[in-house]
């Protein structure tokens, strides 16, 4: 797989990675093991604040949650960048997304597409990943979404 200058790709897309969010409990944002980096679950913080709280399908629209999943994925990429540098990413292996869902809401895959789509925009074929999109009762700080990544390094 050809190496791409991921930082240049972000610039082309007009995307600036945020600062790494401070952990809200006893963990680190990302860990390298062998040639993989696993991120902790990332919330959609923007400048240290959650843009919304509550359940998707009740308090938060699926469309807004899609954007929050995108932001959470960018926060996860920022954690990878901070640990090892974006240029070391060979491919995105897995995206796991959690959606705090109203009991009647069944659109979790569409919400987590916010994460998958931005990963695809940035990494192209190297962004094709396995994925889980899981509905849950509640997330930390009442966040509507949480996203974690596994990436393979060069």
UniProtKB/TrEMBL annotation:
<dbReference type="InterPro" id="IPR013813">
    <property type="entry name" value="Endoribo_LPSP/chorism_mut-like"/>
</dbReference>
<feature type="domain" description="Endoribonuclease L-PSP/chorismate mutase-like">
    <location>
        <begin position="8"/>
        <end position="153"/>
    </location>
</feature>
<dbReference type="InterPro" id="IPR035959">
    <property type="entry name" value="RutC-like_sf"/>
</dbReference>
<protein>
    <submittedName>
        <fullName>RidA family protein</fullName>
    </submittedName>
</protein>
<dbReference type="Pfam" id="PF14588">
    <property type="entry name" value="YjgF_endoribonc"/>
</dbReference>
């Amino acid at each position: 797989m050809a190496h791409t200058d991921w930082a240049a790709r972000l610039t082309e897309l007009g995307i600036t990675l945020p600062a790494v969010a401070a952990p809200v409990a006893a963990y680190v944002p990302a860990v390298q093991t062998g040639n993989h980096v696993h991120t902790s679950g990332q919330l959609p913080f923007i400048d240290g604040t959650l843009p919304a709280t509550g359940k998707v399908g009740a308090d938060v629209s699926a469309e807004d949650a899609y954007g929050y999943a995108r932001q959470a994925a960018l926060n996860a990429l920022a954690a990878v960048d901070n640990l090892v540098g974006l240029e070391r990413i060979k491919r995105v292996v897995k995206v796991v997304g959690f959606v705090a869902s109203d009991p009647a809401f069944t659109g979790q895959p569409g919400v987590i597409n916010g994460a998958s789509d931005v990963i695809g925009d940035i990494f192209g074929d190297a962004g094709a990943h396995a994925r889980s999109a899981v509905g849950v009762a509640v997330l930390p700080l009442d966040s509507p979404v949480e996203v974690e990544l596994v990436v393979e390094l060069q």
